Every structure is written in C-alpha cells, then in structure tokens.
Amino acid sequence: MPRIKQRDEVVAGQKAGLVCRACGCQHFRVVYLKRLPNGVVMRLRECRHCGKRITTRESAS
User: Fold this and answer.
1) Which residue spans within 1-61 are E strands per DSSP?
2) Nearest 5 degrees, angle CA 2-CA 19-CA 30?
3) 16: confidence class by pLDDT, cuts 50, 70, 90
4) What pLDDT was estimated at residue 11?
5) pTM as predicted
6) What single DSSP character describes residue 5?
7) Domains delineated in the chain
8) End-to-end Cα distance, the chain
9) Distance between CA 37 and CA 20 in Å, rounded?
10) Cα–Cα distance between 45 and 5 in angstroms, integer?
11) What is the per-residue pLDDT for 60?
12) Which residue has the higher pLDDT, 15 or 48?
C-alpha cells in the first residue's frame, strides 16, 4: 500500500496533508476506526467530495 503523507511532513517547501488521489480534495471523514493490540490505530477514511475510501495506519512513536 502506498504511504500517505501526513500534515506535519514538508514536501517541496510546503506542508502536505492527506490528499485524495482521485480528486485532489483534502477533506475526509472517518468511516471506521479499529485499535489493534500493538497500539496501532487503523482508520477507514472517505473523501467528502468523491467518496473514494482510503485506509490510514497510525502508531504511537
């Protein structure tokens, strides 16, 4: 699965956020959240514009 850039990463001198690959929108809603035993949080997000869904994985550093 391709890695999604998070808001605090800097790309080409600009802050990058979560961007929909289908339409370029940056507005998502969380459809489903699952906490895994190893501390990882998986979220299914849906683009508010086109409805494309992506899964993100977040872990505590």
Assistant:
1) 10-11, 14-15, 28-35, 41-47, 53-58
2) 90
3) low
4) 53
5) 0.68
6) P
7) 10-58 (2.20.25)
8) 21
9) 28
10) 14
11) 76
12) 48
